[in-house]
Amino acid sequence: MFGFKLIPLVALATSAFASPLISETVSTSELALPTDSILPIDSILPTDSILPTDSILPTDSILPTDLPTDSVLPTIDTSVLPTVTDTGLPTVNFTVPPIATETGLPTSDIIIPTGVPDFNTTSLKARQTGQTYTGDATFYTPGLGACGETDNDNSFIAAASFLLFDSFPGATANPNNNPICGRSITAHANGNSVTVKITDRCAGCQGQGDLDFSPAAFQQLAPLSVGRIHGMTWSFN
């Protein structure tokens, strides 16, 4: 018969279960964590730059490169420009004023007014050729008048209002030389008339057309008792 070697049951059991545990020892390369890293191998950020490789601004210039070749300014017509001399100033034409004489006055004729200005709107010619004045007639006792003439009550004379006497054309500071002196006038009132000459100045007359007569001349228009005649008219002869 065959010979057999008996192995104890306990030893056989130990061998049956212990051997697999010893043979399945975990190696250090087989960790609990997965072989892949928590973070992916690739970087969180993409390898490409955040900004695109192309510039933010376009490569073309903002201003167009194809500007028009024509000039912006219009063509200027040089014919309308003034002629410029060598000095750089435009040619100017002007009229030379008249050359003064040795007296300092120009050669043209000069009219120099004489006497006191005429404050009456009536021209001198109108006064000398019959302008009609209207005013009051009074009388006074004559004597040495402003014209340098001595008269009396019987003289046919009259004193002109100071308003007319002082403004009469040609009047000066010397009343004796007043052109009105000796002028003949004819007065009318109440249908009557009298002709006298101016030999005095009436300082009390209120109107330019007033006349102050000698008593003899006044009575040709009205009695002395009337004293004053309104609405008398007169003119130079």
UniProtKB/TrEMBL annotation:
Transmembrane segments: none
Keywords of the record: Signal
Name of the protein in question: RlpA-like protein double-psi beta-barrel domain-containing protein
Domain (RlpA-like protein double-psi beta-barrel) ranges: 134-229
Record carries keyword Transferase: no
Keyword Signal: yes
One Pfam family named in its UniProt record: DPBB_1
Signal peptide: 1-18
Source taxon at top rank: Eukaryota
